[in-house]
Amino acid sequence: MKQWFSVICASFMAASVLLTACSGSAAPSESKGTSGGWAPKSEIEFVVPSAPGGGSDTNARMIADIAFTGGFSPKNFKVNNMPGGSGGVAFSYMATKKGNDEILMVLHNGQIMSTLVNKSPVVASDLTYLPVVAFDNLLLCINKNGKYKSVEEMIEAAKANPGSVKIGGSQRGNTDHLCFEMMRKYLNVDITYVQFNSSGETMSALLGGHVDFGIFNPSECVGQVEAGEIQPTATFAENRLSGKFAEVRTFKEIGYPDILVTEVRALAGTPGMSAEAIAFYDDMIRKVTETERWKTEYIEKNYLTPVYMTSAEAKKFFDEETQKYNSIFKEVGIIQG
């Protein structure tokens, strides 16, 4: 397993070569529209495969707001949250809109994993890959008033009473679930995964004492961390994060270097999206990622790594990643055969 996660991290590092002005100092384009050609003629539907309040929801709303207020899209956006089926409901909906150039969907590698694990009738490769916009990190958090204070206490409790420790996560077969499976395998403990439709639901369960730990992106828990309600106890990232999360240990520091998972944030379109629309969204998203607002209010605020890949680059990247996800989930026993 270690070699697979080393390969994934290497692919992330290689992809970082594709960083654009989103991480540089270039000013946003003076042009308020995209280059000539196709443009949306009606409001753009923006599908989010989870309930409001999570990282995908935040991602969609930030892109939509910057794109419209910045003049990079002549039409506004309507965010449509479609939780269910660990992403499968939204994926199936997108498939029914084949050829519709005015529908987008937030996509991250956890949703790609979920559709593979759950054998969904529609998978990411059936849709149209659009740009990658960031790499995200993951944290294991506790309720500050909860009974456990560290990973070490969790291990001790799980060994003393197998199955008693409950870990909350958003959906099945995604990066949250993979984090859980990695802990179960490499900590060598019997722990219980409690599945929710979104990180917002997971947070409510953690605050309510219904689960002992929750798995979140920084953007999904920073408010509760600032309020003193939640405390991150470990990060699944390769290195420590910054700012409010600078003191959070990596699993490598705790003694488990194989527990390493990163999320990739991107967009997708309907099957058969036109080449002209793809070019429009490539240009629109590039301009969004070049703005100071994106850099400060999204990337920096949410402790993300800035990345931009065109639709073509994203397709190549995810085609390769999907092969790795199949192998990884087979190795940990989530996918059989």
From TrEMBL:
<feature type="signal peptide">
    <location>
        <begin position="1"/>
        <end position="26"/>
    </location>
</feature>
<protein>
    <submittedName>
        <fullName>Tripartite tricarboxylate transporter substrate binding protein</fullName>
    </submittedName>
</protein>
<dbReference type="InterPro" id="IPR005064">
    <property type="entry name" value="BUG"/>
</dbReference>
<keyword id="KW-0732">Signal</keyword>
<comment type="similarity">
    <text>Belongs to the UPF0065 (bug) family.</text>
</comment>
<dbReference type="InterPro" id="IPR042100">
    <property type="entry name" value="Bug_dom1"/>
</dbReference>
<dbReference type="Pfam" id="PF03401">
    <property type="entry name" value="TctC"/>
</dbReference>
